[in-house]
Each structure stands twice: as structure tokens, then as C-alpha cells.
From TrEMBL:
MutL C-terminal dimerisation domain: residues covered: 431-573
Domain of life: Bacteria
Family: Belongs to the DNA mismatch repair MutL/HexB family.
Annotated SMART domains: DNA_mis_repair, MutL_C
GO biological process: mismatch repair
Name of this chain's protein: DNA mismatch repair protein MutL
SUPFAM superfamilies to which the protein is assigned, alphabetical: ATPase domain of HSP90 chaperone/DNA topoisomerase II/histidine kinase (SSF55874), DNA mismatch repair protein MutL (SSF118116), Ribosomal protein S5 domain 2-like (SSF54211)
GO cellular component, one term: mismatch repair complex
Gene: mutL
GO MF: ATP binding; ATP hydrolysis activity; ATP-dependent DNA damage sensor activity; mismatched DNA binding
InterPro entries, alphabetized: DNA_mismatch_repair_CS (IPR014762), DNA_mismatch_repair_MutL (IPR020667), DNA_mismatch_S5_2-like (IPR013507), HATPase_C_sf (IPR036890), MutL/Mlh/PMS (IPR002099), MutL/Mlh/Pms-like (IPR038973), MutL_C (IPR014790), MutL_C_dimsub (IPR042120)
Domain DNA mismatch repair protein S5 residues, every copy: 209-327
Alphabetized Gene3D superfamilies for the sequence: 3.30.230.10, Histidine kinase-like ATPase, C-terminal domain, MutL, C-terminal domain, dimerisation subdomain, MutL, C-terminal domain, regulatory subdomain
Length: 614
């Protein structure tokens, strides 16, 4: 039999490795930023164009590389971080496997410009698809500049799977947040398509959080600090009243490396149990410092999933530490330097004794003692009139209510509790009733229909909002006092993407700043108190599903609004609302499924009922 096993060529092996390391432009940003930090850089610039598809450039002032090291760094498994297998269990750096540059160079046009402090000149290397195009000696500043162009130029199938520029930019921003938060002592500058996105000077951890997520984040933070023999926990958690629908502001760092840990996240949720509303998520920024020998960070190509030796102990300590910080926050009052001094106690009353209120009781009063009134009648004390001659106040106000009266009584207008507009299509012969505040039951010729009220209302609102977005004829109600809502810069980017579609639904926007947005008008169906919740839900849905084209954005917007504004299970509907909901449901184009492809109603025929009695 002929030999069939052969070694793969280097360029094919590099492309296969690139599939694990480089999944999208944000993966390149992560690897290059980590290399810059490992090089000891104190200032790092990130330049991105077209969501990273056209250009990604990282410029740092680190120690740089010599000409030989620069060329060798593009080889597979070439690294300065480890020399033997035991070094994998005592890591203090970000990158260590030596796959990043080789994988990036295999699928992009790469240009490196680097120079050490000792060398007089630097080195420039150009590579395309793992092939060295040029290597020359040039004049360069200390540090390294990595230029990555035309990502996946030689793998068009992978390039076709990339999302829109806005979605890819959002993923890059997430990676930038993680790395800049893990290293607040490093200054970062972030540019996208020629405009500034972030200018982050070197600072402490709390100020770095405020720089990224807005000034109003400062008042939400509660410090966490605990040191044991197993772990040192530091950072901040957000106050329970600021819990959001989205899970965006949740960061774990283990030894200055961002990690994802559902197990530790469950410990945080346990500490917040009973303090936040169901369906909301607390925010946290926590650093865990453990012995490098007790953590394995080499179990996933992206190095975000790690394994701790003693996770159970870490879980218990994290939960108790967060609970302790929440307890201190609830007990200890915060210092308010903007308090009005006019409300403080004057100095003249400083040493004045507090007078105890005296209660005077007439012990001789008897409520059942008979007393004489002005008309000579005898009555008891408890029914003694407060005002004598009160009958005279109503003299001359007698009204005759005989048949010749010209009085007209205006009938009270009863409005539906959930429907405020639209042509009434109620069939007064239809009988409906609500079952367990969840289902609406109505009769048909062949039997009866059981309708899930929440899913039915979602279908009605979904088609209505989708129609408004399509024909752009939504009705808006102006707010007497505009609302100002605070969001982080990444959330503002999402709002800017969907702002046009929100306007077609009925929202009216004022000024949109870097840390907040002003809303002057809302759709007719939206209450002013629900605007913050709706915006948070919209941002959460767009962060999780990240739609690309405009059609999917409109569809998701309509789904989110329908889900947020629909009648929930547990709400009582009057008879008019029940009938109106039934009529509107069967007037929809699709009646059997909700916007989320769940069954809306079921039919029980007369034969089905009769079979139950056999």
C-alpha cells in the first residue's frame, strides 16, 4: 500500500493555525496589543480602518527588536517567553506560544517597523501570505509598529464570513476595553477611520473605568478589596440599583489578563441575590491575583478561558468578599462634597437640648356624657357638631330633579388599558375571559381558542412597529421635559447605528454626546418611565446578536420593542382589552407564531371536549 501520510507545507500549516488564533479583526488587535504590553510599552496607539478589514496598526514605545529577532518572530512557535515545558506553569506575560505573528502574516499583508534603544537604526520587514517580500534597514524611533492590511486576502471564504464594518468595529472596541482596563498604567490612543475614539492617559483603575464608561459611572462604583493566602481580590462592583438588562460591564481579570468564567460569575450573582430585580445583571470590574502556578491559561487558543486549581475556595471567597463590600456600602454613608450648607444645623443650635414633646390629655372628658345643644336637644360629646348652624350653608341650593329638569349628565368615557388608538373592531357578541392572568379564552364555531396574551400582543406590536419602520409614518408624543440618559461610549455607538430606525418608530432625539443622549419625544405606546428600560434592552439585544444589514436591524428593533411593551403574564385585562387583542391578533398577517417563533394559541374543538367525557 502506498504511503498516504505527508507533512503539510508551512504556509498551509500557518493558515490552519490562523483559523484558531485569528477569527476576526478583533483577534489581530488583541494579539498585537498584548505583544506591545509584553514589550514594556507605556504608550500604545491603535489605528483601525473599515472595521479592521482594510487596516490595523499598533504603534508602541516598547523595547523593540533587533533585525534577527524581527525576522525570527514570524516563524511558528518562535517565542522569548518560555524555554521549557515547566515555564507554562509560571507565566507572567500575555503571549507565549509564538503563534500570533506567524498566523497573522499567513492571511494578511504585514509590515513591521522596529528598533531597540541600543541600535542606531531599525528594521522594516514586509510579508504577504507568510512570504518575506522585503527586509531593509531604516531610520525608526524606539519601539515597534505593526501594520496589518487586507485581512484574509488569500482566504476569500473567511473574508465573506466577516460582518459589517460597524459590527467588527464593535468587537475591536470590546477587546480594547478589556486590555486597557487590565493595564491602567499604560496610555492608550484609539483612532477609527481618522477620528479619535479614546484618548486614555495613564491613570489608576477607577479613573480608567470612568474614562471608558463615562463620568456618571463614578457614582455607581463600590470598592472591593480582600487579600488571603489563596487570592487577592481588588476592584469595583456597581451598586445594586444600577443593575442593567445587558451584561456589558462585567470584567474579570486574572493576573492582569481578561478571562471569562461562568463559574465565578455565578458567585457574583449569588452575592447580589435579593438585591437586584430578576432579569437584570450587576456590573463589576474585579482583579484576581493568584499564584501563576495555580492557574492554567493554555486550555484555549484565545487564552480567555482559564482553569484554577482550587475553584471552590475561590468561589466562596469571591462571593463573601462581594457581599461584605455590599454590606459596607449599605451601612456607611457616602461623603457628599456638593451638599448645601444651608441645610446643616446652625451653630447656635449646636449645644441646645432637644425638647421632648408633651401630650396634654383632658382626663375629665367623657365622650358619652350628655350635653345640651343650642336648640335644647341632648346629644353626646362624640357627636357634637363642629360648626353650629351648618345647615344654613346649603340654603338656596335645592335642585328639583323632576321630569322638567334641564340637567344633562355627561357619560364617563372608558378607555382601554392597553390600546389607546385604532378603529374599534370589537364584536360585542364575542365572549372572552382571562384564565390565570396568562391566557385569553374565546369561543369559535367549532369549539374554543386558548390564546397566550403576552405572545399575542407581541405579534400585534411587532407587525405594527415593522410597518411604521417601513413606511416611516409613526406618531410621536413630545415630552414636556426632555430625558437625558447616560451611556458608555460603546453603547452610544450602538445607538448611533440604530438612531435612524428609532426615529421611524417615533423616538425624537436631541443632542447625542459621548456619555449620554437627550430624548425629546417617544412613541405613543411608550411611557416616559419605560424609556430607560427600552434603551437598555435594545442595546443588550444588539450587543448579543450584532445584526449587520439594515433589514435585520429593523427586524430586531421591532422585536425588542414588541417584547418590552407587550402585556406580560400576570397582568389583568378588562373585557374590552381582551376582545380588542383577539380581533387585532387575527387581523395580523401571521397569527400562529410570535415574533420569536413560539406558538400563540391553540384550538380545542367540540369533538376534543366530547372525547374527554367518554
Amino acid at each position: 500500500m502506498a504511503d498516504i501520510i505527508r507533512l503539510l507545507p508551512d504556509h498551509v500549516a500557518n493558515q490552519i493555525a490562523a483559523g484558531e488564533v485569528v477569527q476576526r479583526p478583533s483577534s489581530v488587535v488583541k494579539e498585537l496589543l498584548e505583544n506591545a504590553i509584553d514589550a514594556g510599552a507605556t504608550e500604545i496607539q491603535l489605528i483601525v480602518k473599515d472595521g479592521g478589514k482594510t487596516l490595523i496598526q499598533i504603534v508602541d514605545n516598547g523595547k523593540g527588536m533587533s533585525g534577527t529577532d524581527a525576522r525570527l518572530s514570524f516563524e511558528r512557535h518562535a517565542t522569548s517567553k518560555i524555554q521549557k515545558a515547566e515555564d507554562l506553569f509560571n507565566l507572567h506575560t500575555k503571549g507565549f506560544r509564538g503563534e500570533a505573528l506567524a498566523s497573522i502574516a499567513a492571511i494578511a499583508h504585514v509590515e513591521m517597523l522596529t528598533k531597540t534603544e541600543e541600535d542606531e537604526v531599525g528594521t522594516r520587514i514586509k510579508m504577504e501570505g507568510s512570504k518575506v517580500i522585503a527586509q531593509e534597514v531604516v531610520v525608526a524611533p524606539k519601539g515597534t509598529s505593526m501594520l496589518v492590511k487586507n485581512l484574509f486576502f488569500n482566504i476569500p471564504a473567511r473574508r465573506n464570513f466577516l460582518k459589517s464594518d460597524q459590527v467588527e468595529f464593535r468587537h475591536i472596541t470590546d477587546e480594547f476595553h478589556r486590555i486597557s482596563l487590565a493595564h491602567p498604567q499604560v496610555a492608550f490612543n484609539f483612532y477609527n477611520n481618522g477620528s479619535d475614539v479614546f484618548q486614555l492617559p495613564a491613570n489608576n483603575f477607577r479613573k480608567r473605568i470612568v474614562q471608558i464608561f463615562g463620568r456618571k459611572t463614578d457614582e455607581k462604583l463600590v470598592p472591593v478589596d480582600e487579600e488571603t493566602q489563596v487570592v487577592k481580590i481588588s476592584g469595583y462592583i456597581q451598586k445594586p440599583e444600577f443593575a442593567k438588562k445587558s451584561r456589558g460591564e462585567q470584567f474579570f481579570f486574572a493576573n492582569n489578563r481578561f478571562i471569562k468564567s461562568p463559574y465565578l460569575h455565578h458567585a457574583i450573582l449569588g452575592a447580589f441575590e435579593g438585591l437586584i430585580r430578576p432579569g437584570t445583571h450587576p456590573g463589576y470590574f474585579l482583579n484576581l491575583e493568584v499564584d501563576p502556578g495555580t492557574i492554567d491559561i493554555n486550555i484555549h487558543p484565545t487564552k480567555t478561558e482559564v482553569k484554577f486549581d482550587d475553584e471552590h475556595t475561590l468561589y466562596a471567597m469571591l462571593k463573601s468578599t462581594v457581599k461584605h463590600s455590599l454590606g459596607q456600602f449599605n451601612v456607611t454613608p457616602a461623603l457628599d462634597f456638593e451638599q448645601d450648607q444651608n441645610l446643616d444645623t446652625p451653630y447656635s443650635y449646636k449645644n441646645k437640648e432637644v425638647g421632648i414633646p408633651q401630650v396634654v390629655v383632658d382626663s375629665s372628658f367623657n365622650p358619652f356624657e350628655a350635653v345640651k345643644t343650642s336648640k335644647g336637644n341632648s346629644t353626646s360629646n362624640y357627636s357634637k357638631p363642629k360648626v353650629e348652624g351648618w345647615e344654613n350653608l346649603y340654603s338656596g341650593m335645592e335642585v328639583s330633579l323632576d321630569g322638567n329638569s334641564n340637567l344633562e349628565f355627561e357619560s364617563e368615557v372608558v378607555n382601554s388599558s392597553i390600546f389607546d388608538e385604532g378603529k374599534e373592531v370589537v364584536d360585542h357578541t364575542t365572549t372572552t375571559f382571562q384564565l390565570r392572568k396568562k391566557y385569553i379564552i374565546t369561543t369559535i364555531k367549532s369549539g374554543m381558542v386558548v390564546i397566550n396574551q403576552s405572545r399575542a400582543h407581541q405579534r400585534v406590536l411587532y407587525e405594527k412597529f415593522l410597518k411604521n419602520i417601513t413606511i416611516k409614518e409613526a406618531v410621536s408624543q413630545q415630552l414636556l421635559f426632555p430625558l437625558t440618559l447616560s451611556f458608555s461610549s460603546s453603547e452610544i455607538c450602538i445607538l448611533n447605528e440604530i438612531k435612524e430606525n428609532l426615529c421611524t418608530v417615533g423616538f425624537v432625539f436631541g443632542e447625542v454626546a459621548d456619555d449620554g443622549v437627550e430624548i425629546k419625544g417617544v412613541p405613543v405606546l411608550v411611557a416616559e418611565s419605560e424609556v430607560q428600560m427600552i434603551m437598555e434592552q435594545l442595546i443588550s439585544d444588539f450587543q448579543q446578536e450584532v445584526p449587520g444589514d439594515s433589514f435585520s436591524q429593523s427586524d430586531m428593533l421591532a422585536k425588542t420593542l414588541a417584547k418590552t411593551l407587550s402585556v406580560k403574564t400576570g397582568e389583568t385585562l378588562d373585557e374590552f382589552s381582551q376582545v380588542k387583542l383577539v380581533n387585532d391578533l387575527f387581523a395580523c398577517k401571521e397569527t400562529t407564531l410570535s415574533p420569536f417563533n413560539k406558538k400563540v394559541y391553540m384550538t380545542i374543538t367540540e369533538n376534543d371536549i366530547e372525547r374527554k367525557f367518554i
